[in-house]
């Protein structure tokens, strides 16, 4: 019985006009400085599996910039097999204190969604990071809508890290694409700190299609301009042409939701 | 007691059945059913002989693990009589029923009840009572001449009842000692000298002079509450209500002791003698009944086989297996830390559904081998005092965020200098051109454990696209001829 009432409530919420309840009027650049809007669902895509660590790094950096702790990291056993175990020392070197990190490992996607729904309703959490690999058909419009509602009522910021996946219609507030970027070289041509090429593919009620190259500064907990080096990368703040197709597709799906 | 493994027999024709085991010198019969015994077979016969005598014999391999598991299940079921049940492998159970017979108006009724239940499962049971576990075991396993009381019954048992090895038993029989009484009549020192100290100990145990230990399978819980039903209840939700009532009762007892439960176990005893167990665990001591019931419901939902009441449950028991101090003041304090409490509740809920070990936090261990330096602990365990050394300001991360265990082999191409990183490597069918590199960071094997573990030379490398990897060469060129390369982790 409880299920059907929940379903009805859910259908009603879908039918209601989707007005962003916490319309974020800040300039997009501020989001990167102060962290993504709290109590919302954000999607971080790494289209290729090799960009998975960059996506994870960006998601952690966003959570740290917003100071939304503790962080609960949800992942499937398949993610662990393909992408490796989480390494606390490395996470600490990004600025994430491993003692505030909780890891929940689930068997499959169905269990992932269920655990995510439970965790999204827990106001004690700061950030819920859901890591999924591949297509993950369960993370569809309905599921993301449900997560978004849960986030708005509990105040948990939900980051959905999608590795090796292409965007599908969803109810997320923002959608980012992250790829690795060459780092600022240190002495003797040693690799520097984490640098990412990020692209805002979609933003609810706002412009999309912007791209930045950023470097994560662990000590100040901020993103810095990361366009350096000889590689011809798009400069900071310049709109990005590539990925535009995905950006075009995404807003269309939003209109359909509304 | 001789169990006859009824789960294999269901729906079979009445052909004699034997279980066989490979031993030195061929395949021999290990266990037989009633039909096979009637056909004149006996344990220890070779399979070829048995087949010659009874061609229609059905033969199965003997599986001592399944037998043991079955015995464990029976032992679980026997906990309805007493919390102290010990296994007597391969096919016996010892129940310590001292002080437990009042429910049954006497031990004979208890035994009748037990035989009744097991007979319904097609089991043949032999039981005996004894002042000591050893006497009871001997009386149940061996048939002696009828006797008026326990002491004399034990004396009339054959010497085999002493449970010694075959050589010692044969030696006793050769010496003309046929019954346990014969052995008892001799001076113990003589017995010990001729047949070993073991024989003397067993004699003393059987005569009740020394009490052999009984090792119960589970420790008796601190707090246990139970409810018996004259009519078995067949509905799971009603059983849950009963668990709720019991939890309220247990919570009352806990409150008197200023304690809260951490580990709870509800056991549903079915009328046919089997038992189903539900265990839940909480991160902090609790007396919160609604919370517990939520966890129990979660537990039932996550069961691989759904609860099957069968003919119904006639006994429900709730044990608090682990209780810790929980004062009223602590309750208030938790209210203040509402947020922390919510996270703990969430972790309890997820741990109950997914399994305790899947909800984790990080701990550190004293090892410099990267994959051994970190521990994953169940989040419900006490908070580990991990020492995460803060990195130096301005330093890039020197350790990856993802670590592969075991490290993944890569194909290294065109290493420039013997001690340097490769120019290019192939991982998962993709070739990566190394643009930047730092290293080597040398991590020696734990030579104090094993000497032949090669040294690892680690490099942080970045490819042209900006992806950062942690790779190592397994072994110095001086240590081995063609050391292999591995990818150990991925940087953000």
UniProtKB/TrEMBL annotation, chain A:
SUPFAM superfamilies: P-loop containing nucleoside triphosphate hydrolases. It comes from the Bacteria. Residues 239-258 are annotated as: Disordered. Residues 239-252 have a biased composition (Low complexity). This is Protein ImuA. It comes from Sphingomonas ginsenosidivorax.
From TrEMBL, chain B:
One of its GO terms (molecular function) is damaged DNA binding. It comes from the Bacteria. The keyword DNA damage applies. Residues 223-322 form the DNA polymerase Y-family little finger domain. Signal peptide: none annotated. SUPFAM superfamilies: DNA/RNA polymerases. InterPro entries: DNA/RNA_pol_sf, DNA_pol_Y-fam_little_finger, SulA_CellDiv_inhibitor. Keywords: DNA damage. One of its GO terms (biological process) is DNA repair. It holds the Pfam family IMS_C. This is DNA polymerase Y family protein. It comes from Sphingomonas ginsenosidivorax.
């Amino acid at each position: 019985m409880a299920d059907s009432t929940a379903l009805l409530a859910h259908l009603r919420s879908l039918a209601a006009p989707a007005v962003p309840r916490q319309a974020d009027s800040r300039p997009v650049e501020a989001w990167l400085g102060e962290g993504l809007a709290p109590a919302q669902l954000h999607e971080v895509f790494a289209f290729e599996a090799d960009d998975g660590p960059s996506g994870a790094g960006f998601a952690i950096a966003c959570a740290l910039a917003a100071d939304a702790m503790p962080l609960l990291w949800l992942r499937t056993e398949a993610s662990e097999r393909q992408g490796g175990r989480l390494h606390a020392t490395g996470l600490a070197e990004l600025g994430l204190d491993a003692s505030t990190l909780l890891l929940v490992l689930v068997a499959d996607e169905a269990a992932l969604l269920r655990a995510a729904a439970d965790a999204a309703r827990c106001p004690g959490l700061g950030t819920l990071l859901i890591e999924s690999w591949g297509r993950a058909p369960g993370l569809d419009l309905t599921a993301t809508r449900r997560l978004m509602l849960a986030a708005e009522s509990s105040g948990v910021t939900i980051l959905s890290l999608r590795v090796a996946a292409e965007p599908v219609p969803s109810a997320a507030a923002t959608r980012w694409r992250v790829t690795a970027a060459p780092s600022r070289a240190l002495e003797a041509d040693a690799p520097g700190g984490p640098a990412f090429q990020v692209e805002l593919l979609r933003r609810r009620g706002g412009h999309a299609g912007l791209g930045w190259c950023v470097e994560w500064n662990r000590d100040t907990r901020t993103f810095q301009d990361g366009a350096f080096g000889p590689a011809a990368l798009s400069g900071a703040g310049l709109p990005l042409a590539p990925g535009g197709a995905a950006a075009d597709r995404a807003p269309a799906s939003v209109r359909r939701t509304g | 007691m001789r169990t006859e493994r009824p789960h294999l027999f269901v729906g079979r024709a009445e052909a004699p059945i034997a279980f066989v085991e490979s031993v030195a010198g061929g395949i021999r019969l290990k266990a037989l059913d009633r039909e096979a015994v009637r056909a004149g077979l006996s344990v220890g016969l070779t399979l070829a002989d048995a087949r010659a005598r009874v061609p229609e014999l059905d033969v199965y391999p003997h599986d001592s693990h399944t037998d043991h598991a079955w015995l464990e299940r029976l032992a679980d079921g026997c906990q309805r009589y007493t919390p102290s049940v010990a296994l007597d492998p391969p096919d016996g159970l010892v129940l310590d029923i001292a002080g437990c017979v009042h429910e049954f108006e006497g031990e004979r009724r208890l035994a009748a009840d037990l035989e009744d239940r097991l007979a319904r499962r097609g089991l043949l049971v032999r039981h005996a009572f004894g002042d000591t576990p050893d006497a009871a075991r001997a009386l149940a396993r061996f048939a002696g001449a009828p006797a008026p009381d326990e002491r004399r019954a034990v004396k009339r048992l054959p010497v085999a009842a002493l449970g010694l090895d075959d050589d010692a038993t044969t030696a006793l029989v050769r010496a003309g000692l046929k019954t346990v009484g014969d052995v008892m009549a001799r001076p113990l020192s003589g017995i010990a000298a001729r047949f070993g100290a073991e024989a003397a100990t067993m004699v003393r145990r059987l005569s009740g002079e020394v009490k052999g230990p009984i090792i119960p399978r589970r420790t008796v819980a601190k707090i246990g509450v139970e409810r018996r039903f004259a009519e078995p209840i067949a509905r799971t939700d009603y059983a849950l209500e009963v668990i709720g009532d019991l939890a309220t009762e247990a919570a009352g007892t806990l409150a008197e002791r200023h304690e809260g439960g951490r580990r709870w176990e509800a056991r549903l005893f079915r009328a046919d003698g089997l038992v189903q167990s539900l265990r839940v665990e909480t991160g902090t001591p609790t007396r919160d009944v609604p919370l517990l019931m939520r966890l129990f419901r979660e537990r039932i939902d996550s069961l691989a086989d759904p609860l099957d009441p069968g003919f119904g449950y006639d006994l429900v028991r709730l044990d608090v297996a682990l209780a810790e101090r929980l004062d009223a003041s602590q309750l208030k304090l938790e209210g203040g830390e509402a947020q922390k409490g919510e996270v703990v509740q969430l972790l309890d809920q997820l741990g109950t559904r997914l399994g305790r070990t899947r909800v984790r936090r990080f701990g550190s261990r004293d090892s410099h081998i990267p994959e051994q330096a970190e521990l994953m602990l169940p989040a419900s365990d006490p908070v580990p005092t991990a020492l995460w050394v803060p990195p130096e300001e301005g330093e890039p991360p020197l350790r990856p965020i993802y670590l592969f265990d075991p490290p993944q082999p890569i194909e290294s191409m065109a290493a420039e200098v013997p001690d340097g990183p490769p120019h290019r490597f192939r991982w998962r069918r993709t070739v990566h051109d190394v643009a930047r590199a730092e290293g080597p960071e040398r991590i020696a094997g734990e030579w104090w454990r094993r000497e032949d573990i090669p040294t690892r030379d680690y490099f942080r490398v970045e490819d042209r696209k900006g992806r950062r990897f942690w790779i190592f060469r397994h072994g110095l060129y001086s240590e081995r001829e063609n050391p292999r390369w591995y990818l150990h982790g991925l940087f953000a």
